[in-house]
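Notes from hallway chat w/ T.B., transcribed later so I don't forget. T.B. wanted the structure written out for a chain they're using in a teaching module, and asked if we could keep both sequence and structure tokens in one place. Agreed to drop them here.
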Amino acid sequence: MIQTSDDAVISVVLGLGGTIRIGENALTVSDLTVMFDAITRTGSVQGFADALGLSYRAAWARLQAYETALGRPLVRKTRGHGTALTAFGAALADAFTAAATTLEAGLDRETRAVEHRLRRLMSGEAGALTLAASHDPLLVEVLTEAMSAEPGAGAAVELSVTGSSAAVQRLLDGGADAAGFHCGALAPEAAGAPFASINAGAGLVLHPLFEREQGLLLAPGNPRGIRTVADLTAPGLRYVNRQKGSGTRDWFDRILAQAGLPAAAIHGYTVEEFTHQAVAAVIACGAADAGLAVRAAADRLGLDFLSVGWETYYLAASRSLASPALDALVTAARRRARSTPGYRAADL
């Protein structure tokens, strides 16, 4: 829901549409859905009439036209119990409900996109962009420092830091306008759910923001002599992990699996932090010996860094979303990555 400058509140509602064609007859799905809902809820044709603002006679005539087109009765009248759907009518209503439920998340996402466009058309102002994103130091810097310098970046960006899986799921469920995420060395389509759902077929567009280097953060001088992931199993060595659902945690789990190491062999595997900076801080203060994070976090606190590889950090959003804030964010992040150690431009 949005409110324009003249205090007129506008609400955008998207729903299941389309038509059913049987021979030469065409029935509007939205009208059938209204009829099914009204009769189920009120137990009467009058309820259907009220829902569409029709007279009882007009509503009954429309219902009969539906039944004629479908060749099946949709309702039955029972003395003392009003009107109810027939078995056929109930089954058709269930089919529409199932379709609407499946499409609900996408409709919620597109509703947000339409409201953004409508706000700008009617008031000239872009609405706030809700971004659910996996933590990244460069991204946070761009949002706090660079966005105000970008042309057209007047709209606020509301950032919610969460794991990559949760960020993507919020976008898919219509709970965010955009999602920032990474999948380690894997491409989204190879990373499984929910990342594989980010594709053009779902009405989404994927922006590779930048590539970043991840690795093991170690105490200055690497006093424990860590050279490989197998060294993390040394007696007394303390590891600090990222939270479940984060892209970095998922990457570390894949690294352990490739090395044939069980999680139980890593002392501190269950010790969790929610940002790269927090992992670096735990190691810098001497509470842990190693943890997986981006090079930028190691550089800021003067830690040693043992690279495990580069990955792409992505931004995904609805293809229909028109947001100056989103465009400015993509531009600023890509530009900053070209001049920041531990980052580089992504292949577009």
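Follow-up for T.B.: The chain has a mean pLDDT of 87. Might be a good example for the class.
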